[in-house]
Amino acid sequence: MTESKLILDGARVAQAIKDELAGKVQGLTKRGITPCLVTILVGDDPASATYVRMKGNACKRLGIESRRVELDRETTTEQLLAAIRELNADPSVHGILLQHPVPHHIDERAAFEAIDLAKDVDGVTTLGFAQNAFGMAAYPSCTPAAIVAILDYYRIPIEGKHAVVVGRSPILGKPVSLMLLNRNATVTICHSKTQQLDRIVGAGDLVVAAVGKPKFIPGSWIKEGAVVLDAGYNPGNIGDVDYEACLERAGAITPVPAGVGPVTIAMLLKHTVDAAEKRTSSFES
């Protein structure tokens, strides 16, 4: 029953993005500029450490400099802000990524806001969010950007479609909703207080799962032929949708892993390279 289904291969999309970036990185290197991404890790969460390592390895394979700033779990908000300000002032740094979540005692929003907008390659500042709302963000949040990149790569129409986004986080659910709205989709945002969630999801032509709960969306909720984009990643390599059940009804679907995740990292690399190019252009103009 699944032979006609379109599996949205994130690894393939990510490679296409990185292939395009390779030439840009080489061009910058010839001019004596190495794009640089700094990742800040606070505490010793093993999952966060794994994500940081994956991002670092992806940078190195493309010729992007990857630096890691590791801070103790006892780090205060002010100490974290000081570290971010130091990176803001470093002209060799083009992108800053604060790995989240941070320990509970830290004001995460204050830390995000401290990142220079020109180096906010993960789209976490409120100003970056506002620019995204107006369709003018230089660096939108990476996972939402990845979702749109996957749709574009496979030439899946967005305009005129009913997109249902399950989740309203400020770095995923909300920004991807705005990006789809700016592409002329009709968007419904669902959350923990939404009533008749099954009926709403069942009306979606595009369904974005961004709720952070394993197999939260069953196959019975999915409309026949709908496009399912699973942005969840839970322990055991499990997404937010019941993949096998949703596969039976969906027309196209992202797997977990190898779906949205690889493209998210590729978009982070793209934003870092773009930031390096913009900084170089501003100095040369």
UniProtKB/TrEMBL annotation:
GO terms for cellular component: cytosol. The keyword Oxidoreductase applies. Belongs to the tetrahydrofolate dehydrogenase/cyclohydrolase family. Catalyzes the oxidation of 5,10-methylenetetrahydrofolate to 5,10-methenyltetrahydrofolate and then the hydrolysis of 5,10-methenyltetrahydrofolate to 10-formyltetrahydrofolate. It catalyses: (6R)-5,10-methylene-5,6,7,8-tetrahydrofolate + NADP(+) = (6R)-5,10-methenyltetrahydrofolate + NADPH; (6R)-5,10-methenyltetrahydrofolate + H2O = (6R)-10-formyltetrahydrofolate + H(+). NADP(+) binds at residues 167-169. Homodimer. One of its GO terms (biological process) is purine nucleotide biosynthetic process. Keywords: Amino-acid biosynthesis, Histidine biosynthesis, Hydrolase, Methionine biosynthesis, Multifunctional enzyme, NADP, One-carbon metabolism, Oxidoreductase, Purine biosynthesis. This is Bifunctional protein FolD. It holds the Pfam family THF_DHG_CYH_C. It comes from the Bacteria. Residues 8-122 form the Tetrahydrofolate dehydrogenase/cyclohydrolase catalytic domain. InterPro entries: Aminoacid_DH-like_N_sf, NAD(P)-bd_dom_sf, THF_DH/CycHdrlase, THF_DH/CycHdrlase_cat_dom, THF_DH/CycHdrlase_NAD-bd_dom. GO terms for molecular function: methenyltetrahydrofolate cyclohydrolase activity; methylenetetrahydrofolate dehydrogenase (NADP+) activity. Residues 141-279 form the Tetrahydrofolate dehydrogenase/cyclohydrolase NAD(P)-binding domain. Signal peptide: none annotated.
